[in-house]
Automatic annotation (TrEMBL):
Source organism: Enterobacter nematophilus
Protein family: Belongs to the short-chain dehydrogenases/reductases (SDR) family.
Alphabetical list of CDD domains matching this protein: SDR_c
A Pfam entry, by short name: adh_short_C2
InterPro entries: NAD(P)-bd_dom_sf, Sc_DH/Rdtase_CS, SDR_fam
Protein name: SDR family oxidoreductase
UniProt key word Oxidoreductase: yes
Keywords: Oxidoreductase
Length: 249
């Protein structure tokens, strides 16, 4: 029961690796029982097993955010084990979605990105709300690319801008249920999903931050833990950039 999230049960999507894994680990370290969800079956099983071996309370479910039936099934299974106290909407298509000029962007790729990053976030939230206790919280993971308009990444940027807008609208609707929902906008972080990003883009970020240097997962997780905790019980509908001061909100 110790820690900022002691006694809480938190769902994290996209939890097999990258930022999602670090969100799950940080929540567990702060006392939460964590439900890890991801489409990457093998990596999810390995990550969940690794955290379980450290003594954390972990369960895992394979989920496909592009498949409404998959989302419904997973949250039905989660609900069979009881209510939840928080949700981190982290899962998104990020790798392989950029590089093309907007004039050459593939419309089918655009649709896939929107299906997962926007519709998937909405549908996961819709499925989770009936399981959330009063006074609990949701954190949506956006991106600071939506604040400064990163080039050659249009579908991803647009999808994360939509996540920010949805967060604000959802906050108005969920407030009557005493459920808080906020978004964070991380900057370019050193995780598996950003290994494809050209070195010059990493350099642009690292030199352009008020707090110069590379951003690590541990630089982001504290904001999520705080937003899930009772310390932020009167904060909702907000966007918190977590990028070392590369761009301000």
């Amino acid at each position: 029961m110790n820690g900022l999230l002691g006694g809480k049960r938190i769902v994290v999507t996209g939890a097999a690796r990258g930022l999602g894994y670090h969100f799950a680990k940080s929540c567990a370290e702060q006392g939460a029982a964590v439900v890890m969800c991801d489409i990457l079956n093998g990596e999810l099983a390995e990550s969940a097993h690794g955290l379980s071996k450290q003594g954390f309370a972990i369960e895992s479910h394979v989920i496909d955010l592009a498949d409404p039936h998959s989302i419904e099934q997973v949250f039905c299974a989660i609900g069979e084990q009881g209510q939840i106290d928080g949700l981190v909407n982290n899962a998104a298509m990020a790798t392989g979605v950029g590089g093309k000029n907007m004039l050459d962007y593939d419309p089918d790729l655009w649709d896939r990105v929107m299906s997962v990053n926007v519709k998937g976030t909405w549908m996961v939230t819709r499925a989770a709300v009936p399981l959330l206790r009063e006074g609990t919280a949701i954190v949506n993971v956006a991106s600071d690319t939506a604040l400064w308009g990163a080039p050659r990444l249009m579908a991803y940027v647009a999808s994360k801008g939509a996540v920010i807008a949805m967060t604000r609208s959802m906050a108005r609707e969920l407030g009557e249920k005493r459920i808080r929902i906020n978004a964070i906008a991380p900057g370019l972080t050193r995780v598996e999903a950003t290994e494809y990003v050209p070195a010059e883009r990493h350099q642009l970020y690292e030199n352009g931050r008020a707090l110069t240097g590379a951003q690590q997962p541990e630089d982001v997780t504290g904001s999520v833990v705080w937003l899930l905790s009772d310390l932020s019980r009167f904060v909702t509908g907000q966007l918190i950039p977590v990028n070392g001061g590369f761009v301000f909100n």
